[in-house]
Fold each of these.
Amino acid sequence: MQKNDTAVTAITDIGVNGEGIGKVDGYTLFIKDAVIGDTVEAKVMKAKKNYGYARLMKIIEPSPDRVEPVCPFARKCGGCQIQEMSYERQLAFKEQKVRGNLERIGGFDGELLDQVMEPILGMENPFGYRNKAQFPFGKDRNGNTVTGFYAGRTHDIIANTDCALGVPVNRKILEIILEYMEQYGVSPYDEKSGKGLIRHALIRYGFQTGEIMVCLVVNGTAKDLSHAEKLTEKLCTLEGMTSISISPNTERTNVIMGKTYEVLWGQGYITDTIGGIRYQISPLSFYQVNPAQTEKLYSTALEYAELTGKETVWDLYCGIGTITLFLAQKAKSVYGVEIVPQAIDDARRNAHINGIENAEFFVGKAEEVLPKYYAAHGENAAAADDADNADDMAHADVIVVDPPRKGCDEALLDTIVKMKPEKVVYVSCDSATLARDLKMLCGNGYELKRVRAVDQFPMTVHVETVCLLSHKSPDSVINC
Ligand code: SAH
């Protein structure tokens, strides 16, 4: 097929980005917004030898899984990819995506996966789940200041203050900001010229506490924000308002937040809880965006770890210590490792405000910190036959990893294999790298015991997975 050709095709599969896949005489078409089960007319926009990307022109016969999107901007907006697919079908797609990767990349056979895969954990109400949103500001074609979301793969702003994934209060906050900008002539930032003041509004909402944070990212300082007190006055009328701040960002960059923040009103953070643990969240801290599902994700990780209170646990890629503190409640001691120093500051503070004393945190790369400790406290001590020195830290009963999309570094996997923890709990946001890493671990003494996908991001193609690996022959320590 060639560019601008049109064709009618039945959608028989879903691509990794949620696009429908159809075949025309053996030629594969990827069609955004087409749902599996649809028959559609599509126009080829980009043609390669064996496959092409096509635009959905007409739905000839809708799929039984096709639903009316909740948001009128669902197709244009870059935030959601599969809002037109029934939620049930979304969950089946995500489960299949994890399974497919474990089979193809991990080399696990179907029979084993039938045994170890547990049903995906979805949401009862898959909308309004996000506790954080970052809205860009700009001008529309008529020169009006607008805020909303970027259209898919562009920086064109779709004016929409009412995202279906966010909380209802977002809209009120954004309208107050827009009104303030209009009244006092405060300009939105223009990416092309680098001029203008307001770049983004970060809004965070504590689902358990009802506390609200607003942080304006400005191309300047607090002094440039004329009549800022008028803005804070209005925002304070909203129930739950706890923290209003600005974050200066004068760089010509796609990075949203500045490197610092300054409080305009209230305190610099909000508090929220997950599974009974309190977290203080400042504008620059990382915090999971779907707290209801995060609790399910961490509870699954905790269940898989099967802690009795006697275990030494390492939590690698620990961020602000969310999983670490969850585990600490049931373990003897927990060690968290994270590359971002500010996240470790947060982790230590979170341990402190929860009165958790059996958690210790280290800044550094997981693939450097763990091998170093193992060499210093385990390997050498064992070689010197110095049992006293082979202390807690070199030993691990359970190792939990929750790496970014690229998965675990090989040096880390090698060390895990050497340390031989009885269990490895792998939390993953990318099932392809997960499958690659599981293959390595299962080729080196581990067995895949349990797998469960958790839907942290309904309406998008992303899916989290928790896996339990168990050592085939755990070292039985003989104390004589
Ligand atoms: N477990 C945390 C965070 C998971 S996100 C939670 O659930 O909240 C992955 C984390 O890994 C991020 O915080 C990132 O900063 C960190 N990270 C990335 N590369 C790393 C590395 N090589 N070593 C340690 N941490 C790393």
Amino acid sequence: MSRPEDVRAPEGHPIFVIQKHDATTLHYDFRLEADGVLKSWAVPKGPSADPKEKRLAIPTEDHPLDYADFEGVIPEGRYGAGTVMVWDRGVYRNLTRKDGREIPVTGALGKGHVSVWLEGEKVRGGYALTRFRTGKGEAWLLVKMDDAEAAPGRDLVATETRSVVSGRTIEEIAAGEEPE
Ligand code: MN
């Protein structure tokens, strides 16, 4: 499968994307390329740069790689109906290790823990995704690792409101305004 044109990664590096999605409820779809698809979670509060902030991440369906480029309005009645913004994107490195050895992302996800180093335009540094059980099934937590890119108290979602591909806000995308 080919990579999306606009998110072509340096050789050997998988991509990630975070799409702001104003659907029934506003959330951020966090997606990591693994095994030719985008592994996906809906993060109601979005990612934080503060290691003390644990962000709930609900697993959702795998998406095709070329969905990483999608920005626009999904019509009523369709899966994911609402407005989608490419809020951030970039490449990532797998940091998941056991006994000093790298654990491939797909296997790590199956075991319920993966650590990645994100190189986005807004989101950078190490992030850990960890599964836990709830009464209703499984959920995950997305937490900033305590590294040089950590920024205690920094609320990325509040300060970063525009698309990294078009510069538009979610309202401008919903209104069908053309990219600048
Ligand atoms: Mn969504």
Amino acid sequence: MTRLTGNDIKDVSQDLQKLEDELIRLTGRKIKNIACEAVGMWEHAINPEAFNVAVVPVTSGLGVISRFTESVRDICNWLGMNAHVTKTTDVQGFAEAITEKADMILMADDNEFIAYNTEEMRYSDNSSCTAKGYIAALNAAAGSILGKEVLVVGAGRVGTKACQFLLAKGSKVAVTDIDLEKARKVAEIHKGTRVIEDVEEAIRNADYIINASPAHIDTGNIKEGAVISSPGVPHTFDKEAYNKAVIIHDPLVIGAATMIMQSAYYSYKGCRR
Ligand code: PYL
């Protein structure tokens, strides 16, 4: 998974309304609708206002990313929750969150980004939820991808999860990666996945794409009218690409919103007796 930079996310908080408007234009859904469809929950199954959320800065590895925890806090609040960034970091920050009885604790090091539901003692992870969120966005933008072939570009953690979830949802799946071994490994694990060895050829023929790769996609290879749901960072599609295809992207929001709703959904106890 590519590590975000402060520059990637510097405008996330202020651009939430802009992203929401773009999602409504392309998919007919708000951020929260995409997240709920991604986790398979009815939007009103949980009351977001009931969630006090703590976001803990983590200084391990390459350290904190400028505005990362503030952006995650603002995404939680956009979903209707009551989120704040803890005063302290790391284990001390986790202890602070527990002491103040947070219902959900979010934190990320260089390898994992999780949303821990303290009541249910279960967590959701960002890689799985980014895959689910971008599949939900693709499905909404395309009308439906049931029975249709979706090309997954990039056989990393998000791309691998995307293959798994797409097959489970009844789409046909093709996967491609500049590292052929990674693509073949996904096809071994997730039976039914088709490996396409030539990445550019794969893209030229694809109507529906989950782009989970940091690599640049040449606009010339994009099929007219393609729908590209693209969590990949860095995001290098140019204006012409946006004229040729429907492209859905943001550096953090769809994945984090899906992870937050997934974690909150663990508290859903069915219709209360
Ligand atoms: C969660 C993002 C999505 C893509 N790559 C993932 C990433 O950049 N992970 C690193 C996050 C580090 C956060 C830092 C902080 O500010 O607390 N430890």
